[in-house]
Amino acid sequence: MRLLPEYFVSLQPNLYNIMDIKNQFAKKLMEIEAIKLQPNEPFTWASGWKSPIYTDNRKTLSFPSLRSFVKLELCHAIQENFPEAEAVAGVATGAIAQGALVADQLGLPYSYVRPKPKDHGMGNQVEGEIKKGAKVVVVEDLISTGGSSLKAVAALRAYGVEVIGMVASFTYGFPVAEQAFEEAGVKLITLSNYEAVIEEAAKTGYIKEEDKAVLAEWRKSPETWG
């Protein structure tokens, strides 16, 4: 049974669908400035890429109602797409908190995955304990190229569990990421995406109409843009 949060009680069932969530969440992210769009003053990512957008989904943890929104919608995504899930694993560091919140809400075992094994102690990369062979859903906060997210999947598979899919707060929708997830055999479900952000940003006047072309061009080839 779907657990509707308080803010959906007043909505008519026929008005509720996944596109509503994508746009609603995109708007909420911009309201708390978790997403910033600067087509004329691009950011520089850690990779060195120039980007007209910067996303920090971890800011949602600081706003109780939005934190609940993310938790419950990630739970709904798991219930609807991966009902056979037996455990949850978060990707460090961005999704450790979200993953724990989701696992607690669903009453499932929880672990998180480090970027690499510890260089001391037990040398763990998967922290916590998951039963070998368990069906696991991975929780991530942001999908860019998909590299770090799929490394976590590989670590879980090496640990001895079955990764049945991944849920995340946001994706840029890069073709390289879509191809990587397909090749890895991982189904990805996200609460929002780049298209929804641009749509909501244009509606609210957060960006100018002429900026949309620049933002669309960046998404085609982010590694060479700028």
Core attributes:
two-stranded antiparallel sheet; 226 residues; single chain; alpha/beta
Description:
The longest helix has 18 residues, at 64-81. The protein is globular and about 55 Å long. Helix content is 38%, strand content 21%. The chain has helices spanning 18-31, 64-81, 96-106, 147-159, 175-184, 194-204, 211-220; strands spanning 35-37, 43-44, 50-51, 53-55, 87-91, 110-113, 126-128, 135-143, 162-171, 188-193. A 6-stranded mixed beta sheet has the order 7-6-5-8-9-10, sandwiched between helices. Strands 1-4 form a two-stranded antiparallel sheet. The N and C termini lie far apart (47 Å).
N- to C-terminal separation?
47 Å
What proportion of the residues form beta strands (DSSP E)?
A: 15-25%
What general form does the structure show? globular
Query: Helicity, in percent?
Result: 25-40%
Outline the low-pLDDT stretches: 1-16
Rg for CA atoms = 18 Å
Topology:
Layout: H1 18-31, E1 35-37, E2 43-44, E3 50-51, E4 53-55, H2 64-81, E5 87-91, H3 96-106, E6 110-113, E7 126-128, E8 135-143, H4 147-159, E9 162-171, H5 175-184, E10 188-193, H6 194-204, H7 211-220
Parallel strand pairs: 5-6, 5-8, 8-9, 9-10
Antiparallel strand pairs: 1-4, 2-3, 6-7
Helix pairs in contact: 1-6, 2-3
